[in-house]
Amino acid sequence: MSNIMLKELKLSASPLAYIFIAFGLMFFIPGYPILCGAFFITLGLFQSFQAAREANDIVFSSLLPIAKKDVVKGKYLFVLLIEGFGFLLMVIAAIVRMTALADAPVYRQNALMNANLFALGAALVIFGLFNLIFLGGFFKTAYKIGRPFVIYIIAGFVMIFVFEALHHVPGLEALNSFGTENMGLQMILLIAGAVLFIIMTGLSYKSACKNFEKIDL
Amino acid sequence: MSIVEVRDIVKEYPSFRLEKVSFNVDEGKITGFIGRNGAGKTTTIKSMLNLIHTDGGEVDYFGKPLQGNETDVKRRIGYSTGTVNWYPRKKIRDIVNIEKRFYDTWDEAAYRKYMELFNLDESKTPMELSEGMKVKFNLLMALSHGAEVLILDEPTSGLDPFSRNELLDVFTGLKNDGVAVFFSTHIISDIEKCADDIVYISKGKIVAAMPKEGFMEKFSEEGETLEDTMLRMERGDFNE
């Protein structure tokens, strides 16, 4: 593991970032907007950024014998790791719900979004928004976390609402497929979510590296 | 031989300007960077470390520009601010265990030696240290990876007279080993005691950058100590 990653995990991270990974299991909760699980995982990450700011972590990191862009890289890798583990729990929950629990009445009689591949793609979009808005916004100042987080909350919850509502739109019922129904479509939607995640994270990382070079610490 | 060359550094703030700051730091010499509060010492040092984005100028270390060689340069230099103010609730041991991984040249023996000399306890957290002890901890990290240049921002501020004396002796020892020490201070007696060269900054401009003896010859009036000279120069500046 790279030294900067180890520094992120051992010195910068708030324990809440690790604990909140468990919110990925919210994909099991019936009758609940499951994408909130993705939001709560990012809330743990936000706590980490707050703790790191209080500990002057960015200045400490910038004085280490690494390039400034590696400081940015460390933060992005940490975020991707936490999101990755959270996503893994969501994948496990979605697979269980799509197979062993595919016909469970508690999930079948659910007006809200079903845990399927589309939901996983949607979770990746929520993570992508966090990376684009919060992470990218944070590295404009390497200090201000409130404003980018509030903007992310608004954008994130608008998207959660949209994703929850979509399958109620006539003609889009297939988005709420159970089990292995409409696998082709579900797979396409998951891949689309992953592509959006990569684009949003990539754009954010590029602008964060550029902005962080110009910041006075 | 110059190990650090600072050339024409400019940094604009709404109410302050660092104006074409230039000076050299020589190998095996102690260079005192002196100026009153707000003169531009910390801004200059931050510019030297790429912590702030300058509006002009260049800094070379070991004959290579900092830009483009940041990782290599930072490995070969040691830097310390006045006090440690990071990870206040983490144990010193845990901070050190991470930080030392970044240095191939980490010298565990030197680290242990300075831990003992500075009477530091690894099981404490930075918030449990007094201001003086924080300075020592910060300095200890800079000294433990075989740095060829030490850039220290107000290392003696907040230290008791005994610790200050010890520290200045440490500087002299390092100098004898060929290390270049560049430290900022507003305590003139520190410069008087151990510096070979003086870089004097006032209102964002370098007033003088030369050997201490040359400085005294150029600026001192008869019977004046360095402190008398500097106080007179600053007073004159104030009266203008």
Describe the protein in words.
The complex is a heterodimer of chains A (217) and B (240). Chain A has helices at 3-12, 15-19, 36-54, 57-63, 68-98, 105-108, 117-141, 146-166, 183-214. Chain A has 217 residues and is mostly helical. Chain A has one domain. The radius of gyration of chain A is 18 Å and the shape is elongated. With 240 residues, chain B is α/β, with parallel strands linked by helices. Helices cover 38% and strands 27% of the residues of chain B. Chain B contains nine helices and ten strands. In chain B, the strands form two sheets. Chain B has a six-stranded mixed sheet with strand order 6-7-8-3-9-10, sandwiched between helices. The longest helix of chain B is centred in the C-terminal third of the chain and has 16 residues, at 161-176. Chains A and B meet through helix 1 and helix 4 of A and helix 2 and helix 3 of B.
Summarize the structure.
With 217 residues, chain A is an all-alpha fold. Chain A has 9 helices and no strands. The N and C termini of chain B lie far apart (37 Å).
**Largest interface, Cβ cutoff 8 Å:** A-B, 23 and 26 residues
**What is the chain-wise order of helices and strands of chain A?**
HHHHHHHHH
Number of strands of chain A: 0
Shape type of chain A? elongated
Oligomeric state of shown chains: heterodimer
Strand order of the largest sheet of chain B: 6-7-8-3-9-10
Number of helices of chain B: 9
Keywords:
heterodimer; A: 217 residues; mainly alpha; 9 helices; B: alpha/beta; six-stranded mixed β-sheet
Helix-strand blueprint:
The complex is a heterodimer of chains A (217) and B (240).
Chain A: H1 3-12, H2 15-19, H3 36-54, H4 57-63, H5 68-98, H6 105-108, H7 117-141, H8 146-166, H9 183-214
Chain B: E1 2-13, E2 16-26, E3 30-34, H1 41-48, E4 56-61, E5 64-65, H2 70-76, E6 77-80, H3 92-99, H4 108-117, H5 131-143, E7 149-153, H6 161-176, E8 180-185, H7 188-194, E9 197-202, E10 205-211, H8 212-219, H9 226-239
Helix pairs in contact in B: 4-5
